[in-house]
Design a protein that fits this description.
Blueprint lengths: L1 H18 L6 H11 L3 H29 L16 H16 L6 H11 L4 H10 L4 H27 L1
Length: 163
């Protein structure tokens, strides 16, 4: 029963971190899993549970944004000037990716890059994708693939470094 409870906890943490990313950091949770889990096979299943929970939470955010887009007027806030060249380039790249969200299938690229590399932040992409014409099935698939690859990479690099 202990292993099943850990899998359920990973799933619940995935859901929670998707809805409240400021308070629950999935990457930090993966670091803990990667360093404390002894069995690589069990670590894999914990990551799968976390990924499925993450997708479920992001689908909730996506769906709320899709339903709420009709009720809220779109207010865009202009960010301040970039601090340096690197920040300016990251912002330009992020804006280009966010612009792709208006195209239903090219927007999947933005969702995947955001899921795997966190640029632009997935919390923002989830809301904008929900307000766009992005199909929910494609959004969900890209979040699952991107997050699973990211989580597995972090967990197994740390797992092998600690072992």
């Amino acid at each position: 029963m202990g292993d099943l409870a850990l899998v359920a906890t990973a799933f619940a943490f995935g859901v929670g971190s998707s809805i409240l990313p400021v308070f629950l950091n999935a990457e930090a949770y993966v670091i803990v899993l990667g360093t404390l889990t002894e069995s690589p096979v069990f670590l894999f299943w914990l990551i799968m549970a976390l990924s499925v929970g993450t997708v479920l939470g992001k689908v909730v955010v996506f769906d709320l944004a899709r339903k709420g887009r009709r009720r809220l007027s779109r207010r865009e806030r202009e960010p301040g000037p970039p601090r340096n060249r690197f920040t300016a380039r990251v912002r330009t790249f992020s804006n280009w990716l966010l612009g792709l969200l208006d195209r239903p299938y090219l927007g999947a690229t933005t969702v995947f890059v955001s899921s795997a590399f966190m640029v632009p932040p997935l919390a923002i992409v989830s809301i904008l994708a929900g307000a766009s014409r992005q199909p929910m099935w494609l959004f969900s698939l890209m979040v699952f693939i991107g997050r699973t690859l990211q989580y597995l990479a972090i967990a197994f690099v740390l797992h092998h470094a600690v072992s």
